[in-house]
Structure formats: C-alpha cells, structure tokens
Amino acid sequence: MRLVATKSIAQGTELARTIYNDNGQVLVQRDVKLTPRMLKRLQQFGITYVYVKDAFTEDIIVNPPIPDEVRIEAIQMIKSSFKHFQQDQLIKNSFLFDKTGQKMTDIVRVIVDQVSNREEVLSILSDILISDDYIFAHSINVTIYSLALATELGLPKKEIEQIGLGSMLHDVGKVFIPEDILQKSGQLSKHEYEIIKTHTEEGFNLLRKSPNIPLLVAHCAFQHHERLNGSGYPRGLTDKEIHPYAKLMGVADVFDAVTSNRVYRDAMLPHEGLEILYAGSGVLFDKRLVETFRKTIAVYPKGLTVELSDGKTGIVLKQNKNLYERPVVRIIKEQDQDVAPYELDLSTHLNVVITACDTGFAKKIQ
To answer: What are the residue boundaries of the HD-GYP domain, all occurrences included (predicted)?
Structure first.
C-alpha cells in the first residue's frame, strides 16, 4: 500500500485500508475503486491522506498501532463520558466514574500492552477513522502517543496508567465550550480564543471534584497547554512548576494536533510535526521528551514516497530501529527515470538523506 494525498488521487484507484466512522460502521471498504464523489466526500471530511493499492507496494502492509475494534471502543468510551459530563454541566461532581472509570482504565491497559509489544514504531497515519467530532479522535491519538512515550521512558506501570487516563480526559473541559466556537472552520477571533482557553480550567474543576479520579489526572487537563518558558496557559507556569505528566502530554497533544486531518487545513506529515516540536525544544517543550518521542513514531511512514539527495525516488519499505530518520527505501526512479525496483538501506548509506516527501503520485496509479 502507498500513502497518497486525497486531492491527488485518480478516479478508479483502489483503497488499501477500510475507512470507518467512530461507531465502527464501514464508510468505504478496502479494495473499492474510488469515484470522484467518494474522493470529494473524503476531502469534505478533512481526510488529507489515505493508503491506496499500487503495483510497487503490494507487499507493504501497514498495521494500526492498536486494533480497530479497540480504537473504536475507546472512542465510544470517550464520547459517552464527555456527553455525560455535558449533560450534567450543572452538577460538577458527576458520578460518571463510578460506572465507567474501570472500563476506561481497562482500555488504557489494553493500549499499553499494544504499544509495549509493538514490533514497529507508531504510525497513526495507518488509522483511517472519520469521527463526527475531532475531540474524540484527538483524545485517543494523544492517549496512544502519551502511553508510547511513557513506556519508552520506562515509567512505572501505575504512572503509565495515570498518564493514559489523563490523556483520555485532557480535553474534557471542551464540553463547556460553545459548539459554534469549537467547530469553527475559520480563524478564531481573540475573544473566541480566550473562550477556548478556558477548557483547561473547566476540565480541572470538573475532574478534581469527580469521584475516583486521581488529582494528577485533573492536573493533566489543567496544565497540558503550559510551556517551559511561561508562554502557555491558563497560569503561565514555567519549567519546574509544570507537572511531568503535563509536559509529556503537551508534546503528544501538539504533535497530534498538527498531524491530524482537519477540514480547514491539511495535516502535516510526521517529519513536519517533529520539526514543530524541535523548533520549541528547550523553550516550549522538554528536550528529553522530544528526543524520546522521536523514537516512538514513524518519522517517515511505510508507503510514503520520498526523494533522496542523490536524485533517486523511492517508497519507504520499513523502519530501522533507533535510526528512524533513515528507513529502508524501495527505489523506483533515478534522476526521474523509471528503474527496476531495488532496496536501499539508508542506515548503511549515510551519504544519502531524504530531502523531500511526495504524496501526489497517485495520479500515475492506474
């Protein structure tokens, strides 16, 4: 399978991974030949990239970081929890977690097992799931990234589970934000942005009064937008004043925000999202966390078309452990001329680097 931009896909291209909604219903089945109407709908849903079938990549299999059924169950759990809070806005000390707290913790444990035993680094791009609300998909993505980062750091099991629960609930305060502001497709006004920012305090106040919710989980909601240099919100905390969980979650939150599909902008590719984190490393984000996070994700996902410094073009075939910027690439062109495909391991060809990525090759797939 090959990763391509939806806006460049030719009519008749076959989809390589099924697209679901967050209720687990199939929207577009794999092997289906995409029609102009389907492609338009995918773009309207904000889907920037999909995996398609391609003669060069028939043997490239991209597995999701967690099974589809686990992801769908987790999103449904988050959705029902948020809806419950929304309905009980006037009753801040909701008894939600008497009923669902254990189920949510169980899902966190399943995800921990999945990311701990994975053979490859994470590639959320392999998950094509259309949600009717960005917050729910974002919450599960941040949970997966945060748990992978916490696991890579070697944190104790109890701390990892708390981070997982905090990640799932970090944006719960957004249930108090007016829908027209939350779903606005254009740029927010200064006043609207100030309203959005209140979700951190609202979430904290909600969670700290909820039975069976550790106070540390509430602080994840409170502090995940704080930054080392004090430029974050709601309190403008600096480095040592920010809880380690919130620092960790802040990295995962920003990365998913910029690499997620949104109706009003294209998603960034992972290496572009990492550049955002590196640009803020030591100023906004903890350097150690950024460096460790880099080890948990596929910088260049399998199936991505890349251009190399020596004029070759290829498709990422697999990752090299601990050298994630230097994958194994299947070369298909040299100096813009087609060649018989062969493999080039960038971990052993250190004089060659990836200089660009291209997701517009689908027009040539027939």
So the answer is: 113-309
The identity of residue 3, as a single letter, is: L
Per annotation, catalytic residue among 40, 103, 158, 174: 174
Predicted TM-score (pTM) of the model is: 0.86
174 as an active site residue: the answer is yes
Are 164 and 56 spatial neighbours (Cβ–Cβ below 8 Å)?
no
